[in-house]
Design brief:
single chain; 91 residues; 3 helices
Length: 91
């Protein structure tokens, strides 16, 4: 038993997940844009909601998208600052 290679479905799913993550990698700028669009769309859905419960659900989704957008803005600034802080390559 010990030391056998994992060949079950979990191993395949894990490999597929990692492969799809590499393919689906977006830039911080693209993710920020997507979250901004989602925030805007949820605010529109909130305004058109038929019930208070629906309006609350869309408000929460808009808040979450806005939070993620702001975090991505922070990440973008950090990446920019890190690029500026890197020492020049040695000659």
């Amino acid at each position: 038993m010990g030391g056998h290679k994992q060949t079950g479905s979990i191993g395949r799913y894990r490999r597929v997940w990692f492969e799809s993550m590499a393919e689906d990698e977006f830039s911080t700028e693209e993710l920020k844009r997507q979250q901004g669009e989602e925030e805007h769309a949820e605010r529109e859905r909130q305004a058109r909601a038929d019930s208070d419960a629906d309006a609350d659900r869309h408000r929460r989704r808009a808040e979450k998208a806005g939070y993620l957008r702001r975090k991505l803005e922070q990440r973008e600034r950090s990446e920019h600052d890190a690029d500026d802080a890197e020492p020049p390559p040695k000659a």
